[in-house]
Amino acid sequence: MKLLFVLPLLILLLLLAKTILFSFRAQTPSDYINSGPAFSLKTHLSGEILSEGLIFGPNGKMTNSFVAKMFGRWDGNTGTLSEEFTYSNGKQQSRKWYLTLGEANTFTATADDIIGLARGSVSGSTIKMEYKIKLPEESGGHTLTVTDWLYLTSNGVIMNRSEMRKFGIKVAELIATMRPISQ
């Protein structure tokens, strides 16, 4: 009888350890502190940027794709990043991020659909940002907790991977590229 209780508990603990220690959520900015090239928000999120991405639902299947034109502008330690999305289902969306650089490679950001303050840090070739987003009513109006990781590659392309969670359960994932638009 003890074995019937201990075995499921052991399996649950192993699954929890896998999630915490060996997954997307297990990485930290310190894992990338010595990676390069060095990510600079002012440099790499400036000017015209083209983003193309895929959105995956909770079952791992792609549910939508998008193309976004972005434009970043900086004035000292504050910047804006305007985004114009066109989704494969025909919907369009606009977002404007307001970014403020802080001390020790940190930054904060706000946008109309972000609840409170997004907090981020730059470490080596990466950016990690965490925030809560309120989805549009036509997408359910849910509030999701988001973890964004941006990875700068040696040719200047930024790879973006995001996880969206509700009550701690992954409900969506986004993978996208961001690249400067040639003048």
Keywords, separated by commas or semicolons:
183 residues, mainly beta, 10-stranded antiparallel barrel, 2 helices, 10 strands
Please tell me about this protein's structure.
There is one protein chain. Strand 2 (62-75) and strand 3 (78-87) form a beta hairpin. A ten-stranded antiparallel beta barrel has the order 1-2-3-4-5-6-7-8-9-10. The mean pLDDT is 89. The radius of gyration is 18 Å and the shape is globular. It contains two helices and ten strands, in the order H-H-E-E-E-E-E-E-E-E-E-E. It has helices spanning 2-21, 41-44; strands spanning 47-56, 62-75, 78-87, 92-101, 106-110, 114-123, 126-134, 143-152, 158-166, 169-180. With 183 residues, it is mainly beta.
Helix content: 10-25%
Strand order of the largest sheet: 1-2-3-4-5-6-7-8-9-10
Counting DSSP E segments of at least 2 residues, the number of strands comes to: 10
Strand content: over 45%
Low-confidence stretches: none
Described by strand count, sense and barrel closure, the largest sheet is:
10 strands, antiparallel, barrel
Q: Could you state the order of secondary-structure elements as H and E?
A: HHEEEEEEEEEE
